[in-house]
């Protein structure tokens, strides 16, 4: 498969990358991200800790790493319509929290809506663009809430 773009030429803005560091313990950061997302209308159909699984299964000795699979049902419904159901392969919108150092947690997110557009999944560009704008505002608000902690 050939991508319709050169990934090395993309800026983080093109795929909606957001990242920040929280000065707190890992479990506290997970709760902070969960609360900020919930305040902006996201629910969590999926949550898991790859680090716990890898440490248990293969003694990976990984630092804490947690994935909050966030979803706003209204936005998900619109995105499914705008992509002829293909965006579901990217669901949910993940907010990742990993421990960079004790008391220092990185929060990371990439826009699945922007990725879907880059990959040419959009059947309705105008609708996907509107959904990208709205979900982008919601994610910005989540990061603003986290920055205010």
In what order do the strands lie side by side in the largest sheet? 1-5-4-3-2
Q: Percentage of helical residues? A: 40-55%
Helical element count?
5
Mean pLDDT over the full residue set: 95
Number of E-state strands: 5
CATH class: Alpha Beta
The CATH topology is what? TATA-Binding Protein
- CATH architecture annotation name: 2-Layer Sandwich
Overall number of structural domains: 1
Whole-Å distance between the termini? 43 Å
Rg over C-alpha atoms, rounded to the nearest angstrom: 16 Å
> Which word captures the global form?
globular
Name the poorly predicted regions: none
List the helices and strands and how they pair.
Elements lengths: L17 E5 L3 H14 L3 E6 L1 H9 L6 E7 L1 H10 L10 E9 L2 E6 L2 H7 L6 H23 L2
Antiparallel strand pairs: 1-5, 2-3, 3-4, 4-5
Helix pairs in contact: 1-5, 3-5
């Amino acid at each position: 498969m050939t991508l319709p773009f050169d990934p090395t030429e993309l800026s983080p803005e093109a795929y909606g990358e957001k990242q920040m560091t929280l000065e707190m313990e890992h479990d506290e950061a997970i709760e902070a991200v969960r609360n900020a997302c919930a305040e902006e209308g996201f629910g969590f159909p999926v949550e898991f800790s790859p680090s716990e699984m890898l440490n248990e299964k293969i003694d990976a000795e990984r630092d804490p790493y947690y994935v909050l699979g966030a979803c706003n049902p209204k936005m998900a419904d619109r995105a499914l319509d705008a992509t002829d159901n293909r965006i579901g392969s990217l669901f949910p919108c993940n907010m990742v929290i990993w421990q960079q150092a004790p008391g220092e947690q990185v929060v990371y997110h990439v826009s699945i809506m922007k990725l879907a557009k880059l990959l040419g999944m959009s059947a309705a560009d105008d609708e996907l663009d509107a959904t990208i704008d709205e979900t982008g505002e919601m994610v910005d608000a989540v990061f603003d809430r986290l920055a205010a902690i």
